[in-house]
Amino acid sequence: MRSKLLFTITLICFLLLQKGFGQEKCSFEIRGKVLVQESHKPISNAVIWVEAIRKGALSDQNGNFQLDNVCEGHYILSVKVLGYREHKQQLNVHGNIDLTIRMLQGEYTMEEIEVTGHQEAIHSTGTVSSLEGEILDERRGENLGETLKKIAGVNSFSTGASISKPVIHGLHSNRIMIMNNGVKQEGQQWGVEHAPEIDPFMAEQITVVKGAEAVRFGPEAMGGVILLDPPKLPISDTKKGEFHLIGNTNGRSGTASFTYEGGSSKWKGLGYRVQASGKTSGNIQSPSYFQNNTGLRELNFSGALGYSSKKLGVELFYSRFDSKMGILSEAHTGNLSDLEAIIENGRPFGEGKFSYSIQNPRQEVLHQIWKTKAHYHLKNDGVLNFKYAFQKNNRQEYDKRRGGNNDRAALDLELFSNTFDFSYDHPVKDHWNGSIGLSVLQQVNNNIPGTGVTPLIPNYDLINLGVYAIEKFTKGHVELEGGIRYDYRYSDAARYDADQELIERDFTFNNLTAFIGGIYSFNSSWMISSNIGSAWRPPNINEQFSQGLHHGAAAVEIGNPDFKSEQAYKWVNTLYHTHQKGEVELTAYYNKINNYIFLNPTGEQFVSLRGTFNVYQYEQTNAALWGLDLSSHYQLLPFSSWYFRASLIRAKDLESRGYLPFIPTDRIDTGISFTKENIGSFTQNKFTLNSLIVFKQNRAPDSEIAPSPGAYQIFNAGVSTVFPLGDKNLIKANLMVKNILNTAYKDYMNRFRFYTHEMGRNITLRLKYEF
């Protein structure tokens, strides 16, 4: 009897245990992707760990990870990676889980090694694209406008072969904010032929934000933001450097850059960096002739000294950009018949010749920045940020003068800018993080006497005050972000007109801007972002007061002091898809701009003793710009990959129903690469071949001086390799041929397309020595 009872109890317990085990499912998967919060770039080698079940994984090169055979239950998942704050997240496992984990830059401690960092990155739900590493090295030696063409939706607006400005979704100049090592670049950027006074060699990473970022940065960021970030200063006893040497056949140019950085062995956390570059170029050659007076000289320097600890960080920075460049001689004609003849001919009448000499017309620009910044970590994990920068910009433009005096500048401007920024980043709490801030800009612009010419723009004083607040919510698959900003601007302008009468006017502008955006991750492969924001821009002083010859642009420009502020509303949507063999990014945007100010060709000419010039007039209308950007990369074979980039943009004058001038044309850039890891002592060997197709601009205004140039296609090729020198040093070599077939073509976005073709074949050799 007892044996039967014992058997029965044992059987019941066994059945109950079987039932219990049947309920506890242990076949679930936790899949995810680890990304940088600021740029959405994947993070490799992040440590993912669930302590309760002693399971972990490392993220791969695409940021993906997977944990298998996880039992149903409640857990805490932690993610650690050097240079980022530890991420912890509660998991309720009742099925398969897909996660997108976004890591914040910060500090990380591992055993006895302490690494402290503070990154001034943009935390944006907008569309962000970056150039860094190998891709950026392949563009070294180019100006900023040309470098950024590797990003879909980014173009350049050029004046001849040497002067180029970045264009984001059809907007440029004062509608694009450039952050140079965390400082808002303040030069005479209003001029269409005033290239950014920036040395791209100082940047380890260049980032483009394509949304309306006026809330974060102020009025000039209505079209987008470009961030040039140098490497973080060392905080340990390490020393390293790099040397770039670049040569070009076209223009017979030589470029050199040197960077050296290190940390102190006596004072932990103290680091320094020095960087310098120089460039010399002669006349550029089109396929069948030289472009006279298109030489360039450039000499730049920057230095930084900083201290960083767990609580405090301080940095001092100085940069000097010094440039002298020639302006195409044929752009300045002596009389109306000569101007009409060269436009009809479409190129200079002579063959030209090579020379390093730079004659009038020419530009000489000197831009200097002094910056100090500091941050302090509070006990509640909040961060106080302070930044002050002083900038001095000297711009001189020299014209061809009849009767001598060619050594006297026709335009001599001196601009002083003071910028002050203060912000508080509150600690992350209940999935919320954000910041509030204050920014101040004060400027003084002076025309240096003695030019003998009525100044193109007046002397002026300007002050801009802005206060803002931004907040972000992050949880699981979702990120939501919003912000609001108020700006007040006052300017006072004074000038003497052609009759030597003093004209003085002051202006007051103010505006409220806001944005809201979000990111949703469907799974580890698919993600969508959407951002809609308002922005504004008060009229620039040149748009209000220009009334004469702009020498560098070889054009007469006429302004209007009664312009209203521009009001913009931009909506940007981006769909991302990543997989084991590649990635795809598709962006669609719409930008409505009320009171849009643009420089419109009148079709008229101005004749003076200094020559004959086309006349442009600033006008104001309501406008809309919309378009698509597509960027993709696919691994065809283990040794071969393919990329495809395309951009399409449309722009309309909503009042006249006509077209706007100087809007980029549609383009397709595609290429294929082949790699072989080792060939003897050479490693990372790669061969690339690509094609660029640019379509004709069939949507140009009727008032333009000459018809739009035709479509064109050019082919480029390159080969690169790495040669190790010992255990630490190495040489990277890159040989690139642009316009292999030496095709003669013109680009609509070049203001000198009326007088000349673009550059012909160019062979570039880049050598980089790391030590």
UniProtKB/TrEMBL annotation:
Domain named TonB-dependent receptor plug: residues: 124-225
Stored Pfam families: CarbopepD_reg_2, Plug, TonB_dep_Rec_b-barrel
Subcellular localization(s) per the UniProt record: Cell outer membrane
Keywords, ordered alphabetically: Cell outer membrane, Membrane, Receptor, Signal, TonB box, Transmembrane, Transmembrane beta strand, Transport
Domain TonB-dependent receptor-like beta-barrel: 367-740
Membrane topology: Multi-pass membrane protein
Listed SUPFAM superfamilies: Carboxypeptidase regulatory domain-like, Porins
UniProt entry tagged with the keyword Oxidoreductase: no
Similarity comment: Belongs to the TonB-dependent receptor family.
Protein name in the entry: TonB-dependent receptor
Lineage of the organism: Bacteria, Pseudomonadati, Bacteroidota, Cytophagia, Cytophagales
